[in-house]
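The data are quoted verbatim here:
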Amino acid sequence: MAELVHHGQRVDAIDPLAREVGVSDRLHCRQSGTSGAATTLTGVTHDLAERLDRARAATRAAGIDALLVSPGPDLAYLTGYDAKALERLTCLVLPAEGDIRLVAPGLEKAAALASPVADLDIEIVTWQERDDPYALTASLVPGASRLALDNHMWAEKVLALRHAMPAAEQSLANRVIAQLRMRKSEVEVGHLRDAGAAIDRVHRRMGEWLRPGRSEREVARDIGAAIIAEGHTQVDFIIVGSGPNGASPHHDVSDRVIETGDAVVVDIGGTNAAGYCSDCTRNYVAGAAPDSEYVEYFEVLAQAQAAQRAHSRPGVTAASVDVVGRDIIAAAGFGEAFLHRTGHGIGLETHEEPYIIAGNDLVLETGMAFSIEPGIYLEGRHGARIEDIVVITDDASEVLNTTAREYALLV
């Protein structure tokens, strides 16, 4: 069965339909018209070329000689190529000046040419099994003294590149690429809207599956099938936290059988055909009304989350969004039960910048997309979290999830 990932951690497979579809495959589907989307090959190439131009300009402005980008979301963002992450080196070499090249194993050349890379001004430089790809990469940036490596690059590749270029200082490329990725274009926001609407459709169907007498795992299996059926190409994560399991923010699923009166936290997300992610948490009560303690703190949580949504707009800091809700929860006596930051950016990854957390003085700007998901967790009893994805607009924010935020009593 397929292996799923929850926020970077592997979890039990939910459904065999939850297979990964690469970004290059998604782009190819849209270009050929098989998915019915309107994006054309020319449009995709133009958007990617602009991203490369902006990345080069930012690299130059940062005083970096070249970006080195391996398979992962940064490579997909810049080139549309969702390359396989293998022990063999694939690496985009994006210099501040000069030609952009993609170093790739010879046996991966066809895959690279099948991606949008073929229509960009990128030379594919291949290497064979007995070649040294790290020496090859070094030869493409002669005399480089400052290199920025993408944050997802495997340690063995980082160290091999350091060995190949011992005089070059290595730093993280995130300070360049993250600045581009966290300011979403209108096209990207449209993809996030589609993803949000798809996951909302799954939440609206929760009454079909969630009821006393069923295990979390059984419910999750049905949710996984629905995530695909409602418009995703991949299941990214499923949390079904019933009763005391709801007090663990990153619980996934277990064989615990849902009991009458259980509060259940359901946090789900997937990736759509454009490569963009959904993430939404709603709360359910199975079979009978919850206890008074749950009702009390859920009202506090709803007030805090609503205040954070209202506060989110251009010009405020990421930290201030966190503080607005945290202060409300703390004033009600549940401050120590809010165990995590308020939110995370979202796009080609479920978790990316900006992070909505105390101490982050980043000023929010138009196009930034992130979750607002305060929670209250009472260990050994139950918990609740309300999560929406919002996008900063010119003067406020747009909330991409529209399902009811109150807990739903399923009888």
In short: The chain has a mean pLDDT of 90. The longest strand covers residues 234-242.
